[in-house]
Amino acid sequence: MYKIIKSYIFQSASALLLLTAVGCKKGTFDINDTNPNVPSTVAPQYVLSSSLASTATLVSGNPGGGSISGNDLFNMYMGYWAVSGDYIPNASLVQYTLTTDFGASIWDNTYPTIQNLKSIEGYYAGSPAKGANYIAIAKITKSLLFQRLVDIYNNIPYTQAAAGGTIATPVYDDAKTVYTSLVNQLDSSVALIKSASVSADNPGNYDIMFGGNMPQWISFANTLKLKILLRQTQMSGSSAYITSKLAGLTTADFIGSNADAMINPGYNNGATNRQNPLWQDLGWNPTGALQGLSSYFRANSYAVNFYTNTNDPRLSLVYALNSSGAVKGRAFGSTKLEHNTDISAIGGNSTGAPQSIGLLKSYSQGSVILSSTESLFLQAEAVQRGFLSGSANALYQSAVAESFRLLGVAGYTAAAATYTAQSGDVVNFTNSVNPIKTIITQKWAALNTYDPLESWSDWRRLGIPSDLPISTYPGTTATHIPYRLLYPTSEYNYNTANVNAQGTIDALSSKIFWMP
Amino acid sequence: MVISGIGLLSKEIKVTTEPLLNAVVTTANDNLTEVVVTAFGIKKQAKELGYSATTVQSKDLNVAKPVNVVNGLTGKVAGLQINTVNNGLFAPTRIVLRGNRSITGNNQPLLVVDGAIFYNDISTLNPEDIASINVLKGSSASAIYGSDASNGVLIITTKKGSRGKPTVNFSSTVQLESVSYMPALQNQFGSNGGEKFVNDFNDLNTYIPYENQSYGPRFNGKMVPLGRPVADGSVLMVPYSARPNEKRNFFNTGLTTLNDVSFQSGDENGRFFMSLQDVNSKAVMPGDYGRRDVFRVGGDKTYGIFSASYSLAYTYKYQNTTNTGTVYQMVMNTPAHVPLTSLKDWRNNKFADINGFYNDYFDNPYWDIDNYRNKTTDNNLTGNVQFGLRPTKWLNLTYRLGMTNLSSRYEFTGGPKVYSTYAATNSTVLYSNSAGTGIDTVTESPKYIASQGNQSASYTNSVYSNFLLTSDFVANFNKNISKDFNLNASIGTTYIGNKLSGVYVNAPQLVVPVYNVKNVSGLPNISNGGLYDNYVREARKFGLFGDATVGYKNLAFIHGSYRGDVDSRLSKSNRFIPYYDVDGSLILSDLFPSIVSNKGLTFAKIRAAYSVTGNASALGGGSPYIGYGAYVINPTYNVSPGFPYGSLGGYSLNTTVANPNLKPEKVNETEVGIELGFMNRLYLTMAAYQSELTDGIVRANTASSSGFYNALLNAAHTQNKGLELELSGNVLKTKNVSWNLNVNYTYNESKVVSINGNVKQLGISNAIVDGSNANAYAVVGYAFPVIETRDWVRDPQGRVVVDRVTGNPKADPNLKVFGQATPKNILGLTSNFTWKQFTFTVTMDYRGGYKIFNSIGQYMDFTGISATTASTNRQRFVFPNSSYFDAAKGQYVANTNIMVDDANFNFWPGLYRSVGSNYITSAAAWKLREVAIAYEIPRKVFAATKIVQRAVFTLSGRNLLMIRPKSNLWTDPEFSDGTGNDAGRTSTNQAPPTRLFSATLSVTF
Questions:
Q1: Mind telling me how many Å the CA of A40 is from chain B's nearest CA?
Q2: Rg (CA), chain A
Q3: How confident is the model at residue B17, as a pLDDT?
Q4: Best CATH choice for the domain A40-78+99-212+482-516 from the list 1.25.40.390, 3.90.550.10, 3.90.1150.200, 3.40.50.720
Q5: What mean pLDDT is predicted for residues B158-165?
Q6: Which of A456, B59, B111, B664 could form a disulfide with B616 if both were Cys (CB 3.0 to 4.6 A apart)?
Q7: How much is the pTM?
Q8: In terms of CA atoms, which chain A residue is nearest residue B541?
């Protein structure tokens, strides 16, 4: 008996040992492959909506939330905004002695957005035909973001950037090479959309810019390409390249009238982070209190004077009325005692109540990514320079009219015609001795607050406006506004070797490759 | 429990009702043939162990009747550092063996109860249920636990019953707790917070009646108004003189009762144990109370070759506390002349309600106590069953199934705070005139806190559950394979599965003060870890292990163990990780009998061990529970800011890159030891160890151009080395007298070798106070952790540089390392002296070689209530050990006559307080931890009853005395702001230290 038990026990013991070992079924230890709390993969439309929303913040909002965060800087440099007299300004800001913190939030927020766009491409890596539209949208949006980085920083990490976590310290790529690649990316995106089958996935309303309208993405990509190409006009021998890249395109291929590329996921007043990004920066929070920076930034007297001198109806749409019912600006860097009650706020909205006109219409307004007016000015310049065929004058007139429309000028077509019929080559194209100057000056007047980076780029490329004032703050030694931003602190801390390989950067003398 | 050793007769471990008269401080080596329980319930002779292990028995743990068994362990084991980091109910503790190894992971030992891994707080155990705790100090001892092994193990064995006549034990304890040390206070100056410049310290008109800062005129005993006039126009008049004990009197005498009843019985085939303990406690913090009930049944049974044992415990724990930090701050806030304790009745006393309370900036702490409550209810169920099969003498099969289940509910209710219109608008303030002979009526802005508006009620509710299932199978072979050789080998498998889940809701503002989240005001914002959270986390681990000891003639032993871990948290390619240990011991006294003499050396052993173990807790941010580490290697998408817009969803990638290559941290440990016995009654154990942690997990910042902000990496490298000495035994033994002594000494030195590439330091906690940025850090080249904070600007000779004109020193904006935050040296001493019916036990310890940052000092210097701020009588002074820069000479010159330009409001609260180094002191302290006198009532007293078998009356005290350096003006340096790795900082969240007195009557029937 005992012997039987013994042998039985032996067998069962070894069986038990084995059982507990393998008894754990296949998959027992795979339970952590899927996180039940947050998704490990999400359908691409959710990443697309999120990526476009953060793109809107990068292009038209204040991604870092501070006063030196990015677009705010360009608005100040370009004579649109000034620092309120009720605040003691950051000396580095008003003396142009930039630190690596200036604009860092642009860089730090752009790359993760690019990473998300790349993950959309990754999602369709195995089924590119099915994902043609998504892949094209991701590529086009990435091109937009990369161009902005090049225009701010020159050489940037590109080929190794946002590589899904596989490359912790990406190397920097030559800015011109990046530009060339972006143009190719845009071309291939357009080709991808054109050849996409009807069964290819379409993001529909998750495409919070065009609602899944792919022809609009083609126009957007072409306009972006035009913008990239025109940036290079001052580079010697660039004409042939620009011409070749615009071959086959007509003005009908770009964003035309009343077709602003705007992102709007459904901005609302439910919470501050659900408002339009520009409204978040300069408007009112959901409880009706002014956002912090609404009081910090004020109208710049340079732009105020420009609009006033040209009898521009946009004056009170771009800036709010002060307590005495007038628009009044302040010089950037001024130390004069001027209170906010006296100097106009930005936006042309005095109450915070939603309105149909002005820069700041409502918390629910769309974010302007590439406006019709900007597209038409780009086209006017391209025609003027002979890269496209058409009437530069007609495009110029439409461009101004589109700016009037965007800001809500009543009877904008007639008002624009009256405006551009005034004398002086800052308004009158027909009689202008320097048509490029006229185009770029009006482009500057049209892009106030909506695309200050474009204006800054035009100034850096063409020196227009030529009388752009520099800071009047005591101790300012700079004789012009900065040419670029410094690479951000995060690069010097965590991508040290690669950023140091770019050498010493001086914001006042180091140039972007396309600058003359 | 019958267990067998090598070639020995079966021996029973006496674990239960041994007479106190025989109490000794037991260590593993005082009985060389003693069998100790090691990992997975594998039993071994103490003498064969190649590594350090110290066993502490029940009676030694319960000398001073601790509520938390950890308090009974403190000071008794070399290599073991226990910090009771706060006082109050069920005070949290931190247990560390052989120093801190992991920077971001857990450094506390694994808890094993009755052979099964235990996933509850050790304070849920009834100390009286514990038969013994075997402390496996090094990772060699615990290597068989693989990736849970590197911090050592506490092997806790619960009582299973006694053989023989059934006994019932009843004991009742009353424990009183009182505040033992208050921070050093000044009792000379009353209120002023800079509203009026104090030029003349006798000018009572500069006394500000509603201030919380004490930078006003000197006390002179005259009657002055306190606070503002209340709605009926009256004002509280108080003598302008200090009440030195008012703050201490704010705290109650805590009262804890412990009632224990246990029953045990058994015969040679089985035993049974049952116990119930009820702990009811009122803390020193007014209004704080709690309760713990533990019910346990356990037993075993043998039928021939079959055996079974079980233990099942249920613990109920309830705590009801206020927000200690804010209340303690408010109390310390109180100017010395304020009769705070008379303002307790905020419901009826017009000067005590929130409108009439004197303080313009803070409410009455008594109001807070009654209106801000934290309630935690824990239900713990722990159990295990074990089946044994012993078909032959040399084979033993054991299967064990264990579980712990904690279900916890936390609730916070706060406010509402509604001020009267009068309080929010009244602008009349009554001031004493300069001489204190009359009252000036002045119009000012209204009471600050009331004018800031009312506060809605708030509510938090969270429910948490933690379930652990363990399943172990061990086959043990123990056989003499030849005349001289013995093999004791085990192979086994172990499985643990852990599931954590929680729901958290927070309603920061309620419309009506009915505490339910449905009453939340406005739209709740749903975001990660924000107002709402819910989660499930689950992980599993499987281990395959083998363990073998070969003994030669019972005098030389070689032992090895191997463990392979399959861990669900890791990626498939990393999933199987092996760990191992090799150790050996040699009994020199048996090998060379000539060295033995009864009057001298009676035993000598040398041993050595090497092991490779792991620590995977950093996967879960340092939690010892494996579930927390689940999913860290997976990429995840989070809801993007602002989303969803209506039904439009949006997700973005987590900005911490998922690192699929992440693996557990690795610890290599080398240990050598020597054990000596003298005259068969004194034993000396010495151990030296060195351990290296590599692949330490850190959350590294990454360049955003990589697309991510952070990454979890295996990058850090730390070292620990140390020495442990234990001397124990019987010093004196006569017919009536017995004196046992245990002296233990621990030395530990740690070093951060690298963190991540060029990264020189890593903050491991958030700065708790503004200004000084005092924080715990891992810094390359230093011990771990160290405290960093700001210092004064100093000259090359270390003197504080003052401004030649103002005499003021200047804060250096850079952070400096101020020394390690864990003790380098620990000395423990336990003496147990028995004379006839009396037993007198003392445990004390010393810890030294480390620093502590006391943020309460900063707080008190802000309010001006600290002794420091009155150390110069508020008169200008030459800053001690200072110098100034003499530009003409181009050098620093000793400052002997330039005084700081103010030594009152313009110096202490701002400049002085901003320099954290002023609040760093040596953390060295001697502590008298336990003193107990037990009297065994002579049998003849109750012999007539024939029922009572035994009765013992014990008086004991805990933390009776603490000796600190003079520079430590503040609190107990054992305290810490948490139980994590970020030791070295105390704040107002730790109420003042206390001492406890207990009386226990224990009767056995």
A1: 4
A2: 27
A3: 36
A4: 1.25.40.390
A5: 89
A6: B664
A7: 0.85
A8: A29
B450: nearest Cα among B471, B427, B470: B427
Q: What is each CA distance from B334 to B352, B449, B769, in whole angstroms?
A: 13, 16, 20
Distance separating alpha carbons of residues A496 and A342, to the nearest angstrom: 47
Residues B801, B802, B808, B810, CA torsion sign: negative
Domain boundaries, chain A: 40-78+99-212+482-516
Give the tens place of pLDDT for each residue, B892-918.
999 999 999 999 999 999 899 989 999
CB B116 within 8 A of CB B157: no
Query: How does DSSP assign B701-738, residue by residue?
Result: E--GGGT-SEEEEEEEEEEEEEEEEEEEEEEEE-SSEE
Q: What pLDDT is stored for residue B772 in this prediction?
A: 63
Report angle CA B693, B698, B701 to the nearest 5 degrees.
150
Averaged pLDDT of chain B: 90
Quick check: A116 and A51 in contact, CB under 8 A? yes
Cα separation values, B76 from B13, B30, B206, B724, B929, Å? 20, 15, 55, 12, 10
**In chain A, % of residues over pLDDT 70:** 95
Minimal C-alpha gap between A150 and chain B (Å): 13
CB contact under 8 A, B569 and A205: no
Please name the member of A41, A50, A167 whose beta carbon is closest to the beta carbon of B643.
A50
Q: Delineate the domains of chain B, giving CATH numbers in brackets.
A: 2-171+256-320+377-411+459-768 (2.40.170)
Which residues in chain A have their CB less than 8 angstroms from residue B698's CB?
A: none
Evaluate if residue B523 carries a pLDDT over 60: no
CB-nearest partner of B634 from A40, A53, A156: A40
**A-chain residues near B575 (CB < 8 A):** 29
Gap between the Cα atoms of B906 and B887, Å rounded: 27
| CB-CB under 8 Å, A118 with B643 | no
From the list A161, A273, A488, which residue is nearest B642 (CB)?
A273
Q: With cut-offs at 50, 70 and 90, classify the pLDDT of residue A16.
A: low
Spatial contact of B539 and B569, defined as CB atoms under 8 Å apart? yes
In the block, which residue shows the tokens 């003189």?
B241
Q: Which of A233, A143, A231, A175 is nearest to A456 (CA)?
A: A231
pLDDT digits (tens, 9 = 90+) for A325-383: 999 999 999 999 999 999 999 999 888 899 999 999 999 999 999 999 999 999 999 99
Which stretch of DSSP H or E encloses residue A71?
helix A71-77
Tell me the longest C-alpha to C-alpha distance in chain A: 120
**Between A31, A41, A50, which is nearest B568 by CB?**
A31
* Structure tokens, B443: 């119009």
Q: Which two tokens stand for residue B24?
A: 């000794």
**In DSSP terms, which residues pair with B668 in a beta bridge?**
B612, B692
Given a cut of 90, is residue B412 above it in pLDDT? yes
Contact B641 A273 (CB under 8 A): yes
> Can you say whether residue A348 is alpha, beta or left, with left for phi > 0 and alpha for psi between -120 and 50 degrees?
left
Asked if B636 lies within 8 A of A112 by C-beta distance, the reply is no
Collect all residues of chain B within an 8 Å Cβ-Cβ radius of residue A205.
648
Question: Whole-number mean pLDDT of chain A?
Answer: 92
Helix H or strand E encompassing B855: helix B855-863
Query: Is A119–B653 a contact, with Cβ atoms under 8 angstroms apart?
Result: yes
